[in-house]
Specification:
Keywords: DNA-binding, Transcription, Transcription regulation. The chain has 15 helices and twelve strands. It has 380 residues and is of the alpha+beta class.
């Protein structure tokens, strides 16, 4: 916990102001300067108002079918108003949504063909949302960010509302995973939480003018804002401070790092060395996407560091094999899923260090399919 506090204090004076500046960035060129027309981020819109009243709610429900189960109003024949604009930010997604009142629930496990496990950071511009989770019930109103986890069980209702939503995949960043795990199913109703609300508002206003070339910097700014502004809830904080769990996690991290090049390192190996049950091990690593995912994540980060080192001129396949990737194609695919670029790009100095994924061409899909396609792509 001391390390997290230190990170926040270091970030606050500079990174937040830089992040807000990115969200509010002006794209007006200097007088007299000739510039090439920039490539702005495309926005994709879906509205129910162009459909016959009896079909409007079904279209709205299908649009969100990959993340939520929307409950039918008593009379769908009178129509249902819904409008959504989405922006693909590479390894994040941002959306502005206007909806009539409805009830919602997380997807039942048995219905999931392609389960999503993203976090959503939602800020209402007007209206309110009430959420019932297994351990708590909370309500969010206008101007307050709420944190939900699509991989958990919950239900609730929303009034006639307009909202902004930021979608963060669980494997976006190790530090962000820890931060959002401690705050899920809560509202960020603090001074710093309100600052994140300001950031989301500025982002919504400026996204139409953001250029594609600015995406990596925008992703980095958003990550910094989450780390600086999101605080764990009291019960999550108590759980995080539980000394046995903390000691086990730290020991597990040391074991993984020391055996990063050992092909025999698996979940069962780690369980034996820690002396814990399988269920205990899986609970410890649940916030990080599981043991296997975390081990591969650490190996890929180590490979990225080696490829970024100008003094390390080994073949890419040799670097991959040292980190237990015996198939070059498998390594390249896993690397691209993690960082949004190829190992060769990193070797040639053509990529940033964050797990950035280039935006997809959602125009190739029907309007009702785009949102689901985008969320599944974030899932990797």
């Amino acid at each position: 916990m001391r390390a997290e506090s230190a990170i926040r204090q270091d970030v606050l004076p500079t990174t937040i102001s830089n992040a807000i500046a990115m969200a509010s960035k002006s794209t007006t060129p200097e007088p007299g300067r000739k510039v090439r027309a920039p490539l702005h981020l495309p926005a994709y819109e879906l509205t129910t108002h162009d459909l016959p009243p009896g079909y409007q709610f079904e279209a709205w429900r299908n649009n969100f079918a990959s993340m939520l189960e929307l409950k039918s109003p008593e009379d769908v024949t009178v129509g249902f108003g819904g409008k959504q604009v989405i922006w693909d930010l590479g390894c994040l997604a941002f959306s502005r949504i206007k909806t009539d009142a409805l009830r919602f629930a997380s997807l039942p496990g048995h219905t999931r063909r392609d389960p999503l496990d993203h976090w959503t950071l939602t800020m209402l511009l007007h209206g309110s949302v009430n959420t019932i989770a297994p351990t708590r019930t909370f309500e969010g109103g206008a101007g307050v960010v709420q944190v939900h986890s699509l991989g958990r069980t919950f239900e609730g209702n929303v009034t006639d509302s307009e909202m902004l939503m930021l979608f963060v995949p669980r494997d976006f960043s190790y530090e962000v995973t820890k931060t959002l795990s401690g705050a899920e199913f809560s509202t960020l109703d603090t001074g710093l939480g309100r600052l994140f609300s300001d950031f989301m508002t500025g982002l919504a206003k400026r996204l139409p003018a953001v250029e594609e070339a600015d995406l990596p910097a925008l992703v980095a700014a958003t990550r910094a804002m989450i780390l600086a502004c999101v605080s764990p809830t009291a019960d999550h904080l108590d759980e995080a401070r539980e000394p046995i769990a903390t000691a086990l996690i730290e020991k597990a991290h040391r074991i993984i790092q020391s055996r990063l090049f050992d092909p025999a390192l698996r979940a069962e190996t780690l369980r034996r060395e820690l002396g814990v049950s399988r269920s205990r091990l899986y609970r410890l690593f649940e916030p990080f996407g599981g043991v296997t995912h975390y081990i591969q994540h650490r190996r890929l980060l180590d490979a990225h560091a080696a490829l970024s080192d100008p003094n390390d001129q080994r073949r890419i396949i040799d670097i991959a094999e040292q980190r237990c990737f015996n198939d070059g194609t498998e390594f390249s695919r896993a690397f691209r899923r993690e960082f949004g670029c190829s190992p060769t790009d990193v070797r040639n100095g053509q990529s940033a260090c964050l797990p950035y994924k280039p935006a997809a061409d959602l125009a190739a899909y029907a309007p009702a399919e785009r949102f689901g396609v985008l969320l599944r792509r974030l899932h990797g």
